[in-house]
Structure formats: C-alpha cells, structure tokens
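Review box. Two proteins, two foldings.
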Amino acid sequence: MNIMLFHSTYGPRPAVHAAADRLRAAGHEVWVPDLFEGRTFETVEEGMDFQREIGREELLKRAVLAAAPYSDRGLVYAGFSFGASVAQTLALGDEKARGLLMFHGTSDIAEGASVAELPVQLHVADPDPFETHDWLNTWYLQMRRAGADVEVYRYPGAGHLFTDPDLPDHDGEAAEKSWRIGLGFLESL
C-alpha cells in the first residue's frame, strides 16, 4: 500500500517516524509530510496555538500539496489525532483513495461528502476528551451516510495519544493492539 501518514498536533515527533518505519517494515511505501515545517511542541496547547496561528486552510493546503504527487497511486490516508482529521479530509476528497486509517482523532464531515465504500478504521481512547461518545456516534453515522465502511476500535483507560511512547498518554498494550488491528486492516485493502 501507498500510505500518506500525517503527524499529530505535537508535530513530526519521533513516534510518527517510528510508525512510518513500522509500516515500511510491513511492506508499505510511506510518506510523512511535515505540515509544521519542522516545529514540534511539548504540549497540546502549544501545538493548537500554532495551528490557529497558521490556520486550518493553510495546513490543509500543505497536506494537499504533499499528497498530490502520489494521489494517482491510490493512497491510504492515515494520521494521529490532528493528523487523522487531515487524513480524513483528504481521503473524503480523493476519489482514488484506497482507505483511511485513523488514530486518536476525527474531523467534521463536509456537507455532501460522498465516497464509494471507502474502508475506514478508527482507533480511539475510551473515554477521550477530544473525541466524546456523542461526537463519535454522530461522526460514525455521518461517515456511513457518506458511503464509508467504518470500523471503530475503542481502548478503555488509554490516554488520548496512547500510541506515542514519549507521552504520558502512552499505553503499551493498547498501542500494540491498535497496531496489530491496523496492520491487518491495511493487509485487507
């Protein structure tokens, strides 16, 4: 698979590159665009402030420009938290998208979004302060209405970014389970 992997609001931290290496070791070709131009952050708040400063439209433009040279290959879009929301936006707008693999985050769905049975897999903490149960239920129904084939995996007791071993949210057991399921998802595409 050809995978476009987007980083979280913390920026292109080592965990994102380790995830890309893990995907490459499983036989996938992976690109990791740096939407923050090398900036990384120690807290979610710092990263969110930076995102507001740059603006969502500019960040999406950067993501589209990063993906454009490869989109004719039929990309799987993937990401962590903020990066998952970016991946979702791009996947829903790319008729050649092969799949969407999301860790820790979702995004609003544009009115009238439509995909032809796009395979989607979401891995999220339960509970998650950024992805409440009510929001996830609404998101799920909207994705299904858009035509996506959605699977949601919840990880009780895990922190928001549970796959990043350098953050306090890390949960090794949940991270390994999500990777095992996620890699299986990619193999099925």
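Next protein.
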Amino acid sequence: MTADLADGVARTVELLQGKRIALLTGAGISTDSGIPAYRGEGAPVRADPMTAQRYLADESARRRYWIGGHLGWRAFARAAPNAGHLALAEMERDGLVSGVITQNVDGLHLRAGSSHVIEVHGTMRRVLCLQCGQVFDRRDVAAQIEERNPWITVPENIPLNPDGDVTPETADGFVVPTCTVCGGMLKPDVVFFGEYVPADRFRAAESLLRGSSAMIVAGSSLVVNSGVRLVERARRRGIPLIIINREPTRADAWADVTLAGGTSDIIPAIQEQLQ
C-alpha cells in the first residue's frame, strides 16, 4: 500500500470511529473473485446489453440470453467471496457495519456471511415466472435447461461478463426453459438494463442508510442512478462519505475521502484499524 493510500485509510478510520457504517457495493468488489467489472481497465465492452423490452418481445433474443446465461452461470456460481466480502461480513458481526446495499447479483456478500444485504438489482439465484409468479431456484432451472438441451457442455474456463453470462457463438437449436407450473415465460430475478429498481428494494436501502451514521461506497463508479441517489441522501445528511474505487466516480467531489485502489486490500485494512 502506498504512503498516500495508507494516509487515506488512516483518515477514513478517524472519520468512522464510533459510527455505524452503511455499505454501497458495486461490481468492483467482486473482480478479485473472478467476476469482471462493467467499467475501468480491462472491462469487457457491452455494446448491446439485454433490455426488458427486447427480452419480452424477441424469442431469438431470449434464446441467446438463456444459453449465454446458463453457460456463464455455472462458472458464476463457482466464484468465491474474496477478502473484501469477508471483511465486511466480519465488520457486521462486530457491530461496525449496519448492512450492505449491493448493486451486484452474484450473491457473494451472503455467501461471505453478511446477514443484512439488500440486493437492489436482484439476484441470479432466483428465476420468476412472468405469468403465474412462481419463483424457482436457479439450480432447478439449470437442470431443466440441461435436460432439454443435452448437447450443451460447459467449459471449465470461460470468459464471464459482469452479469455472469457469456456471449454465445450461436443459439441455434436451443430450447428455453419454461415455468413447470403454467408453461409461462421465465425471467431471472434481476433488473435488466433500462428497468427501474423495484420501489420496495429502494425504500429498504433508504431505511438502512437512515439507520447509519457513515457511508462507504466500495467498487462502484456510481454511473447507475439508484446508487447516486443514495449517495446524495448521505451527502444531504452530512454523514462521513468514503469512496473506494480504482477509477474516478461521479461522486468523488462529495466524498470526505477517496481511496483509489482495490477493495480486497483497502477494506481489510480499514477493518483492522477500526478494531
């Protein structure tokens, strides 16, 4: 850790002493678990992200989405929490962190042991029927996909996109999964590009932030409006705001401290000094 970064961590610890900390995390906290971020150096280009409108209207788009999602999900599900996730879970158990608001759909905070986690963009663990509302475990849907498409093989090493999918070479012949209750259309329980965060999830995030006396943004460039809105609420309250991200963010001017580095290094350093 450089001297400047060490000074920034020391200043952060000084500001956070005696505070209950709310975390807002983005894709950057999961890069050390092998899941790429949306932006920054080395990030894959997503020139044509899936929108809800396209998913609902275009059968061929749904086929490509499901085959890419299935191939990626098997690798996505093998990803393990890293030092940043584990440090936050321990900080929650120690009473330092009030909870985590995450923009990620990978479930790594829960797997690390955090108990108060608000997944504002949903989760890849669940799949919903858009017709009858039945909720399925993603593992059950994966089993259905493999039964209907026995020719599919999942490579051991496959380049993931940030949402846990891959870009398939072809979707020809792929049979999409359907609801086993009513035969309706299935959709992962995630917020697609262009969709709004469900109001109840955002209210839960606001409530967590109101019950906190400091905020850390970790691994998010704050390009998504829901994250910026939460940071704006923290700024209006005048509580300490710390931003940890390798790249500049939209809210750096509001932060009390900005730490330009990896969350897997910086969060454990903050945790160690707060004890």
